[in-house]
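[job 4471] stage=fold_predict status=RUNNING
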Amino acid sequence: MSGTTAGPDVDRASLERWLVERDLLDAVADIRRIGDGHSNITLLVGDGTRRVVVRRPPPPPLPPGAHDVLREAQVLRALEGTGVPVARVVAVDDVPEVADVPMYVMDHVDGVVLTDDTPAPYADPATRRHIADGIVDALAALHAADWRAHGLESFGRADGYLERQLRRLGKLIGDGEQPVGLEELGAWLVGTTPESGPATIVHGDYRIGNLMLRPQDDQPVAAILDWELATIGDPLADLGYLVATWAHPTAPEHPLTRLCRVTTEDGYPDPAALAARYAARTGRDVSALSWYAAFALWRLAILFEYSRRRYESGNGDPYYADPSMVREFVDAGLAIRDRGSTGG
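[job 4471] inference complete, writing structure tokens
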């Protein structure tokens, strides 16, 4: 997209000056928005030879505590050299100098993000299984990283993660009429909350659409993307989110499974197989995973409903306007609760 402008996302001239001063690029010849996210903005910026990725919040007004890209940069820098696949952060604008919000810049990582189908030459069952195994192994590596040893002692509280999430998110849309079934699902989660094991780094949005993949590599996950929700907490929350958002013929359908239908293809394992591999890699007990999967869907329902209300008030993304998306998350969570499995 040579010669394009960044539009409302960033001032092109200011960004070019800032990147050139730090010898990250020689100019800004190409700039375009990438990714399918509806939260922080990701821009691919190039000079014709080199490329970097700029990550910044959307334009204000912003909800308090949301879109904290500096936290993203902090955890990415902490994970460099740990064996967890992440892009290298090369600069942070925390003043901020370029725009009205902070931003950070990271290396561009080559690869593919899988959504609708697996591209050739990787579209065979063995390679698809290799991709899925790598996704689980990368999550296990993340949860094995020593967050205390890498300067993340203040990144989040090590205890009470599930209880805090249930309490805080439950208050996020406390006013007004609740979506049908949401309170029922939340009450079940509160009444059956499992005891968490030792805390780890938690990504918070770990799904196939947030992974840059190189299927030909021994470890096909080249980089884990979109760290906006990262914290310290219960690692099984990440596994529950992965299986709850993994499209499979036996799994309830909702907006995130429709977003990445690729895993319905022959060769991708079912959610139960993902859980079994994670248990084998980590030694963790995953017998309560149905709770964590329902918890993930409850969280998504809350966040989508909050975003829908923001849109209705004139300050949000029209993507969230359809209330049926919230209903689908709730129905999927209740179905998992009632079935007593993760969908495998």
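[job 4471] summary: The first strand starts at residue 30 and ends at 33.
[job 4471] exit 0
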